[in-house]
Amino acid sequence: MIIFSNLNRGIDYMKKWPLEPLLNPVFKENRVKRALLLGNKILPPFIVFIFFWGFYLGGGFKGVPFLFAIGSNFPVTIACVLFLLLMPVQGYYWFYKRSVTPLNEKQKAFYKDTCKKLEIEPSLNPTMYDLEIVINKGINKLGREFLKQL
Which are the contacts of 72, defined by CB distance < 8 A and separation ≥ 6? Predict the structure, then answer.
C-alpha cells in the first residue's frame, strides 16, 4: 500500500539524515530525529504501564478475575495505547513529507555547488532527499567543514 511505502521512505530518510551539530540551526530534522529516537526508547515502558494501570483500576490486584479487571477499562486502555503507538508513525510521516519537499533557492544553490565539488550530476528538481544524499557524500569526501556554507 502507498501508506506503508511512504512510511518506509520516511524511516529511510530519518535513518540516513546525519546528526551534525552544524545542521541544527538550518534544518528541523535533527530535533525531530532525536525526539523519535527518544520516543522509541521511552514509549514501550509507558505502554506496559498503561496495561498494568488499567488492570489495577479494574481491581485486578484485589482479587478480581483477569478478564473482568481488563474488561472494565479495556476501551480506555486501548485508546491510550493506540495514541502512544501512533506518535512515532506521525513522525515518520513527517519525515516522508519533508523528504519530498522541494528545496528553496538558498538550498538549491548549496546543493548545486556541493554537486559540482563532488563531481555529481545534480537533479533538475532537487528535493530534501536529494540534498540529504549530497550532504552525506560531502561529509564522507569533503569533511564537515563544507557544511559551514549553509
Answer: 57, 58, 59
Of the chain, the percentage scoring pLDDT greater than 90 comes to: 65
> Which residues on adjacent β-strands are paired with residue 102?
127
| pLDDT per residue as tens digits for the range 29-50 | 999 999 999 999 999 999 999 9
HEC string for the chain: CHHHHHHHHHHHHHHHCCCCHHHCCCCCHHHHHHHHHHHHHHHHHHHHHHHHHHHHHCCHHHCCCHHHHHHHHHHHHHHHHHHHHHHHHHHHHHHHHHHCCECCHHHHHHHHHHHHHHCCCCCCCCEHHHHHHHHHHHHHHHCHHHHHHC
47 within 8 A of 84, measured Cβ to Cβ: yes
